UniProtKB/TrEMBL annotation:
The keyword rRNA processing is annotated on this UniProt entry: no
PANTHER family reported in the protein's UniProt record: 7-ALPHA-HYDROXYSTEROID DEHYDROGENASE (PTHR43618), RHAMNOLIPIDS BIOSYNTHESIS 3-OXOACYL-[ACYL-CARRIER-PROTEIN] REDUCTASE (PTHR43618:SF17)
Annotated Ketoreductase domain residues: 12-204
Native organism: Xylaria flabelliformis
Record-stated family: Belongs to the short-chain dehydrogenases/reductases (SDR) family.
MF GO annotations: oxidoreductase activity
Name of protein: Ketoreductase domain-containing protein
Gene3D superfamilies found in the cross-reference section: NAD(P)-binding Rossmann-like Domain
Keywords, alphabetical: NADP, Oxidoreductase
Entry-linked InterPro entries: KR_dom, NAD(P)-bd_dom_sf, Sc_DH/Rdtase_CS, SDR_fam, Sec_Metab_Biosynth_SDR
Domain of life of the source: Eukaryota
SUPFAM superfamilies xrefs: NAD(P)-binding Rossmann-fold domains (SSF51735)
Length: 269
């Protein structure tokens, strides 16, 4: 049970949506640094290409950009078509692309329900569905060997806002993440027998663009309210993903893993 082999992701092929910035970039960087071949997709083509070039230069793995606006079904289909033209297998799918919106209940726009739920929840299903042949190709190898210790992995990036009621009025966001957690459980039962694990990370506060306003104005309060007295760091989320994508996490299926320092359990009274 040698540790380097247990957590090895070298040579694996991964797709990280929203992989150019924030938590997605942290995850992509972790995989590339450990020898994986990582495709990243996001709407911002310039940021996508820049991140891919930077991560590839660092190596030892590589990073390839396939810019795509995943709100559009046609763009999801194009992304998958391009990936299938390049690869016969996909070892890891990280459904990370997401968006948030906040507004008082009386003013919350209808359009932001459709936008947030489509990107945060529906597209995780869409991409898992469209990429099944590539994921199943990995799963088939694992099941044929009889040990099922090297399954493909789908990792959905959820949120602690999907576990407990947030203080902010981000109704569509918290609902989308709660839905994503349950979709994770549902898919795990269908895809497990195919040699594909499906798990989710319920992430807490990380220093990202989405959290920029809160971190600028409330960093001290956020960190003081965390049992670990800090915000999330790149190694926290990258490490969790590498665990789930490696032999070490091959028996974990249908789990919602909290990557939040224990914040979701902190008393609010």
């Amino acid at each position: 049970m040698e540790i380097n082999s247990l957590f090895d992701v070298k040579g694996k092929v991964a797709l990280v949506t929203g992989g150019a910035r924030g938590i997605g970039r942290m995850i992509s960087e972790g995989f590339v640094a450990n020898g994986a071949k990582v495709y990243i997709a996001s709407r911002d083509a310039q940021a996508c290409e820049k991140t891919a070039a930077e991560l590839t230069a660092r190596g030892p793995g590589s990073c390839i950009a396939i810019p795509a606006d995943l709100l559009q079904l046609s763009e999801c289909e194009r992304l998958v078509s391009e990936l299938r033209a390049r690869e016969k297998q996909l070892h890891v799918l990280v459904n990370n692309s997401g968006v948030a919106w906040g507004a008082p209940l009386e003013e919350f726009p209808d359009a932001q329900w459709s936008r947030v739920l489509t990107l945060n929840l529906q597209r995780a299903f869409t991409l898992t569905q469209l990429l099944l042949p590539l994921l199943e190709a990995v799963g088939a190898e694992s099941t044929e060997k009889g040990n099922r210790e090297h399954p493909a992995a789908v990792i959905n990036i959820g949120s602690i806002n999907g576990l407990s009621v947030p203080k902010v009025e981000n109704y569509s966001y918290s609902a989308s993440k709660a839905g994503l957690h349950h979709l994770t459980r549902h898919l795990s039962q269908v895809l497990g027998p195919k040699g594909i694990t499906v798990n989710a990370l319920a992430c807490g506060p990380f220093d990202t663009k989405m959290m920029a306003f809160s971190m600028k104005h409330f960093r001290e309060a956020i960190e003081d309210g965390n049992p670990m007295k800090r915000h999330g760091r790149p190694t926290d989320v990258a490490g969790a993903c590498i665990f789930l994508a490696s032999r070490a996490g091959s028996y974990v299926n249908g789990a919602i893993i909290n990557v939040d320092g224990g914040t979701h359990l902190a008393a609010k009274l």
